[in-house]
Write a structure and sequence with these properties.
The protein has 181 residues and is an all-alpha fold.
Length: 181
């Protein structure tokens, strides 16, 4: 009886640890997706502010976003490396980010050299907007899916913990009954 209790406890602890790891991964994916989306939106905000005002101070969100962009993308990549359903979509995300960053850079270079009208025409063509819409769509899907994974992981972990608690109680009662006998 004692061996069965110990074996089942070890198995349930391992099961609980596995569920916890799933929760941590889902949380990292959700967080990484939100951070990357926020960074891209900051870059876009800086671009628009500068194109409208021609004030250098409006470039601060853009510059900050570009500095942190590769780190945030790398963090998201690390969090999905063992999740093929996410990792398979990263090349598409990378392509969209490259398109958007290229559009941001081109328009800001043009505006900075006194060709703001040309920069605004590039924005009006909509390629940057389509890229940003694709980025939003992909990262929003990551966030929704990871939220579902997170909830499932929490539910599974709660179930494993409850089972561990029941096995421990049954084991304690069995040990007391054997010792009493």
């Amino acid at each position: 009886i004692l061996l069965a209790i110990v074996a089942s406890t070890i198995w349930l602890v391992a099961e609980s640890s596995e569920r916890f790891a799933e929760v941590v991964t889902a949380r990292a994916i959700r967080s990484g997706s939100a951070d990357l989306l926020s960074t891209m939106q900051d870059a876009e905000t800086g671009q628009r502010g500068y194109l409208l005002s021609q004030e250098e101070s409006f470039l601060n969100p853009y510059k900050t976003a570009l500095i942190s962009l590769s780190g945030r993308r790398e963090a998201l990549g690390k969090s999905v490396e063992n999740s093929p359903q996410y990792a398979s979509r990263l090349p598409q995300l990378d392509q969209l980010i490259a398109l958007k960053v290229d559009e941001l850079n081109r328009t800001l270079e043009l505006a900075g050299s006194g060709r703001a009208a040309e920069a605004i025409m590039i924005v009006r063509e909509g390629a940057g907007q389509r890229a940003m819409d694709g980025i939003r769509k992909l990262l929003s899907a990551f966030m929704v899916e990871s939220e579902l994974d997170l909830q499932k992981g929490i539910d599974d972990q709660s179930s494993a913990t409850a089972t561990l608690q029941r096995v421990t109680i049954v084991g304690a009662v069995a040990i007391v009954a054997v010792l009493g006998g």
